[in-house]
Amino acid sequence: MNILGSLITLYTVVLLLRVVTSWFPPASSQSPMASVQLWLYKATEPVLAPIRRTLPSMGGLDLSPMLLLIALQILGRALG
Predict the structure, then answer these.
(1) What is the chain's alpha carbon radius of gyration, rounded to the nearest angstrom?
(2) Which long-range contacts link 15-21 to residues 24+ away (Cβ below 8 Å)?
(3) Domain residues for 69?
(4) What is the pTM of this model?
(5) What angle is formed at CA 44 by the lines to CA 40 and CA 49, rounded to 5 degrees?
(6) What contacts 9, CB < 8 A, 6 or more positions away?
């Protein structure tokens, strides 16, 4: 697998971790989990925010991670 493909796979895992951790209440600021949640947010929000702004309002349902996952899969397959 090439380096770009590996980076796409890694970012996909980071994005999935952000989605999963978003299902749980935020950890207290003293918890190591809080640092992980913050890191996941900082790593994914710069990509998710523009997608979220372009999508129509879905009544509180955020589909930007799903759209980004689909785009990453298409890009990964296109790269081979």
Answers:
(1) 14
(2) 15/44, 15/65, 15/68, 15/69, 15/72, 16/69, 18/43, 18/44, 18/65, 19/65
(3) 3-79
(4) 0.88
(5) 135
(6) 1, 76
Other beta carbons less than 10 A from residue 15's beta carbon: 21
- Rounded Cα distance between 9 and 30, Å, is 30
Query: What stretches in the chain show pLDDT beneath 70?
Result: 1
Contact at 8 Å (CB) between 64 and 51? Answer: yes
Three-state SS for the chain is CCHHHHHHHHHHHHHHHHHHHCCCCCCCCCCHHHHHHHHHHHHHHHHHHHHHHHCCCCCCCCCHHHHHHHHHHHHHHHHC
How many domains are contained in the chain?
1
**Is the separation of the CB atoms in 33 and 23 below 8 Å?**
no
